[in-house]
Task: inverse folding
C-alpha cells in the first residue's frame, strides 16, 4: 500500500471518528500502517513537553469550547429526556427532590420497554435496538478528558477559599437536577446522635476545624484536613500544562467526594489505554466505605488505603507517573497520612433509613404495600439480591454484565462504545441520594436503572413490578 493510500485511509478514519461511526479495526490498521511509514505510533505515556505556548493553548481550546459543549449537549438530548420532573414527596436528606421516570429514550421502531424486553440480545444487536442511553457515557470532551466540576461546586470553593476550579476549555455537562443535593449531609458511625454534622455547609479547610473539633479524634481530624488539602492534578497545577487560566494549587479529595459523599464530578479512569477506551467516571459516595472490600469501580483495590494512595500517585495524573513527577505529585506517607485519611473515611455512615430493620429489610409495620411488593421483586423475580445482599446491599464482588452482547462496537464523541468489563457491586444503601447511576453516570434515575437491569438480566418484569421495585429502592 502506498503512503498516499495510507493518508487517504487515515483521513477517512478521522472523519468517521468525528461523525461517531468508525469501525475499530480500520483505525487500528491506520495507526499500525502509519507507524510503519514513520508517523508517531500510539503511546502509553502523556507528552511531557508542551508543543505550543500556554496562551496559544488557551486561545485554541477556548475557541473550540462552544462546539465541544454543543456536541455533548446534542448527545445528551439524543439519549435522554432531560426535563426537570421531580418525584412527588421523595427527597434526599436535605430536601432536594429526586427525579422520577425513565429518561433513556426508546430506540426508533420500539413502542414500549415491555416490547424491547421481549426481544433477544442477538436480535437487539442485529437490529441496532440497544437504547443509546444504555451505551457508555462519554466524558464532556472525551479526547481531552480530565476532572470537570459542577458549577455550583466551583462557585462555593471560590467563595470559601478563593481557589478556582474553572476550566477554560470545558464545563460540566449533566443538568443539576440530576445530581446529588448540595451540600450533602454527613453522618458518622461514631456519633449517630448528632445526625448531619455538616450543619448544612460544604466542608473545606476554611471551616473543618470549627465543625469537627471535639467530634473527631486527633487522627481523624488530621485525616479530614488532608482530604480537604489541594494537591497538584493533571488539569489543575502550577505548570503550563494545565486547564485553569492561572497556576493552580490543585484539587482536593473532597472536591469530588464533597462532604464524604459526591457532587457527580467526572473524570476518566487512569488505567486503560488508548484514550478512546478509557471509561468516564461518576464520583461514587464514600458513605459506608467501612463495609466495602473493593475500591475503584473496576480496579478492585483491596483497601481504602490502597485506593487513597493510588489516587494521589496515579489517578490524579491519568495513571501516568512520568507526567505526575513534572506536575508535582504529592506522595503521601502510608503509615500516618494515608492511614489518618482512611480513619476518617471509615466512619462515614449511610443516611438514615427509618423503614429498614437492623437486618436491612423492610419493617412491615412501617412500609407501604407497594414497598413490600417491591421488596418481594428485589429478592425474587428481579434477581437483584444475587449481587446486592442485605444489610448494605452489596456482595463485595465484581460482576460482568457483558453488555457487548447487545450492540456493535463503534465510536461516539471520541469514546469507543464497547463492553464495560467487570464492575464492582456498589452498596445500594442510600441509593436515592446518589444519582446519576452506574460507574459512568449513564443512568439518570432509579427507573432507568431498573429498565437497564431488566434488559441485561432478562428478568422481563411487568410495569407494576418495576414501579414497585423503584418504591423499594427509595427506602434503602
Result:
Amino acid at each position: 500500500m502506498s503512503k498516499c493510500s495510507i493518508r487517504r485511509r487515515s483521513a477517512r478514519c478521522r472523519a468517521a471518528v468525528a461523525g461517531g461511526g468508525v469501525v475499530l479495526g480500520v483505525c487500528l490498521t491506520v495507526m499500525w500502517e502509519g507507524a510503519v511509514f514513520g508517523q508517531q505510533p500510539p503511546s502509553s505515556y502523556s507528552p511531557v513537553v508542551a508543543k505550543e505556548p500556554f496562551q496559544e493553548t488557551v486561545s485554541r481550546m477556548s475557541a473550540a469550547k462552544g462546539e465541544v459543549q454543543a456536541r455533548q449537549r446534542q448527545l445528551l438530548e439524543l439519549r435522554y429526556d432531560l426535563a426537570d420532573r421531580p418525584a412527588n414527596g421523595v427527597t434526599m436528606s436535605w430536601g432536594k427532590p429526586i427525579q422520577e421516570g425513565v429518561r433513556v429514550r426508546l430506540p426508533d421502531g420500539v413502542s414500549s420497554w415491555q416490547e424491547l424486553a421481549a426481544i433477544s440480545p442477538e436480535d437487539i444487536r442485529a437490529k441496532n435496538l440497544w437504547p443509546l442511553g444504555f451505551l457508555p457515557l462519554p466524558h464532556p470532551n472525551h479526547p481531552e478528558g480530565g476532572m470537570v466540576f459542577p458549577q455550583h461546586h466551583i462557585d462555593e470553593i471560590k467563595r470559601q477559599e478563593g481557589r478556582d476550579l474553572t476550566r477554560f476549555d470545558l464545563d460540566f455537562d449533566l443538568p443539576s437536577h440530576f445530581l446529588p443535593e448540595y451540600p450533602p449531609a454527613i453522618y458518622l458511625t461514631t456519633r449517630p446522635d448528632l445526625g448531619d454534622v455538616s450543619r448544612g455547609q460544604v466542608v473545606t479547610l476554611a471551616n473543618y476545624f470549627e465543625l469537627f473539633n471535639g467530634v473527631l479524634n486527633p487522627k481523624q481530624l488530621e485525616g479530614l484536613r488532608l482530604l480537604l488539602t489541594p494537591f497538584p492534578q493533571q488539569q489543575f497545577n502550577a505548570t503550563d500544562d494545565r486547564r485553569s487560566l492561572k497556576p493552580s494549587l490543585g484539587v482536593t479529595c473532597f472536591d469530588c467526594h464533597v462532604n464524604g459523599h459526591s457532587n457527580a464530578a467526572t473524570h476518566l479512569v487512569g488505567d486503560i489505554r488508548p484514550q478512546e477506551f478509557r471509561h468516564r467516571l461518576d464520583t461514587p459516595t464514600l458513605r459506608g466505605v467501612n463495609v466495602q472490600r473493593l475500591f475503584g469501580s473496576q480496579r478492585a483495590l483491596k483497601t481504602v488505603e490502597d485506593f487513597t494512595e493510588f489516587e494521589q500517585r496515579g489517578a490524579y495524573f491519568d495513571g501516568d507517573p512520568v507526567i505526575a513527577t513534572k506536575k508535582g505529585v504529592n506522595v503521601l506517607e502510608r503509615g500516618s497520612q494515608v492511614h489518618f485519611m482512611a480513619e476518617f473515611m471509615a466512619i462515614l455512615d449511610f443516611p438514615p433509613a427509618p423503614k429498614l430493620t437492623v437486618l436491612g429489610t423492610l419493617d412491615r409495620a412501617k412500609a407501604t404495600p407497594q414497598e413490600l411488593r417491591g421488596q418481594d421483586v428485589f429478592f425474587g423475580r428481579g434477581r437483584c439480591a444475587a449481587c446486592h445482599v442485605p444489610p448494605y446491599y452489596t456482595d463485595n464482588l465484581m460482576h460482568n454484565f457483558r453488555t457487548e452482547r447487545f450492540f456493535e462496537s463503534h465510536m461516539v464523541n471520541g469514546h469507543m462504545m464497547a463492553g464495560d468489563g467487570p464492575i464492582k457491586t456498589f452498596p445500594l444503601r442510600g441509593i436515592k441520594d446518589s444519582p446519576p447511576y452506574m460507574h459512568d453516570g449513564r443512568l439518570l434515575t432509579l427507573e432507568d436503572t431498573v429498565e437497564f437491569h431488566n434488559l441485561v438480566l432478562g428478568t422481563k418484569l411487568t410495569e407494576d413490578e418495576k414501579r414497585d421495585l423503584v418504591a423499594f429502592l427509595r427506602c434503602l
About this structure: The two ends are 61 Å apart (CA to CA).
